[in-house]
Design goal:
2 helices; four-stranded antiparallel sheet; Immunoglobulin-like; 2 domains; transmembrane; about 200 residues
Length: about 200
């Protein structure tokens, strides 16, 4: 007579639980991978272009040395920001701007309030860059005198911050961006009103 072995309901329950656990993990992994693939395809199809900036106006009201290495500055600045994307909006966060001369920072950072830029939209950003007793290299006075003799003043404007892309209701993580502008203006009339293009890196 052959021996019949039977497992209790307890053993059957343990077997079912062990079978269901791997299936649940596979299902969650499939959903996660599908979501990543969907986001990648949306990104690939839309492929956001980086924003464009141009320097519309830069006016120097004050630029003088009180000591060989201390500078007072007052600059009015207007930038134009363009979003070239027709399907992607842009959130700008932590946007800071400062002016430079001869590769030296001549103003403290000025903060631009966070803002949203819709698809194909253009915004005008105006700010005042004011520095009091800003530390600079002692050689800056000599360079200023030399440029005054030439009759031209080359001033740089640099902006940096973080942006987020918006596609429909989806918003990306933050991406660091840097804006660099250079303007060449007459020394005796230290103001420039132009549409000079700036470079933007992401």
């Amino acid at each position: 007579m052959s021996k019949v072995s039977e497992k209790s309901p307890k053993h059957c329950g343990e077997k079912t639980e062990k079978t269901e656990a791997p299936n649940t993990r596979k299902h969650l992994l499939y959903i996660f991978l599908s979501l990543l693939l969907f986001i990648f395809l949306v990104w690939l199809i839309l492929h956001p272009s980086k924003p464009r900036f141009s320097l519309q106006q830069l006016q120097i009201n004050l630029l003088n040395l009180t000591q060989p290495s201390l500078l007072n500055t007052s600059i009015l600045l207007t930038l134009q920001s363009d979003n070239p994307n027709q399907r992607v909006g842009i959130y700008y966060d932590d946007f800071l701007i400062y002016a430079s001369y001869r590769n030296q920072k001549i103003t403290p950072d000025a903060s631009v309030s966070p803002f949203y830029q819709g698809q194909g939209e253009t915004n005008t950003l105006s700010t005042s860059l004011v520095g009091y007793q800003q530390p600079v290299s002692p050689s800056l006075g000599y360079q200023l005198e030399r440029d005054q003799g030439i009759g031209k003043l080359v001033v740089g404007v640099k902006g940096m911050g973080r942006l987020r892309w918006k596609v429909g209701s989806w918003i990306s993580g933050r991406y660091r961006f840097v804006v660099s502008c250079i303007t060449d203006m007459p020394f005796e009339d230290a103001s420039a009103q132009q549409g000079s293009q700036c470079s933007t890196t992401l």
